[in-house]
Specification:
The chain contains 6 helices and 9 strands, in the order H-H-E-H-E-H-E-E-H-E-E-E-H-E-E. With 206 residues, the protein is α/β, with parallel strands linked by helices. The strands form 2 sheets. Strands 3-2-1-4-5-9-8 form a 7-stranded mixed beta sheet, sandwiched between helices. Strands 6-7 form a two-stranded antiparallel sheet. Helix 2 runs parallel beside helix 3 and helix 5 crosses helix 6.
Amino acid sequence: MSGYYETLNGAEEYARTHSTIPDFYERDIQLLVDYLHPIKDEKILELGVGSGRDAKLLLQMLGSSYTGIDISYPMFLQARQNNEGRFLNLSDQNLMHLAFPGSTFDAIWAAAVFHHISPAQFREGLAEAHRVLRPGGHFFISVRSNGDFEEIDPRTKLTYYHYSVATLTQALDQVGFETLSHSQVSIPLEGRSISYLKMLAQKNPQ
């Protein structure tokens, strides 16, 4: 995500409009908790920290070693403000080129970030997440999903790429993930109803 949300005004607006999780991700984080429960001191990576909304729940429900990346410094400011009193290990990185050794993390959380990645680069981004995840590790991803198409927000000029269940499942499979579960929900956002596809996958054990 770049451009508009790399500005202070854009980051503040994002924090206002995306500040709550009305049972939207809590169940997904709980599912991740259930899968990770046998592991102690889990290492969690969040791709696209945004305003720190999900970081708060991840830390509350997992209590893990948390690392978050984003390419927007104003978003880091929002994330720290919304998680006052919590330690956030934040890093200015592009998810297409992660500066972590292979098999570093037990789980990766990537909510509403991959729909900013074009189909031409989509599998490359998934492969990079796969690389830094340990064998048997878990990967959560959510994207906008009204089929397979591209839309440009006329106000922010951000591009959103929608991915269908079949397309996302195939892309995950091609880089070495096994899909464990998926769901599709619509939420009111930006004055309209937007459909989101959520998937939990696992890196094949080696």
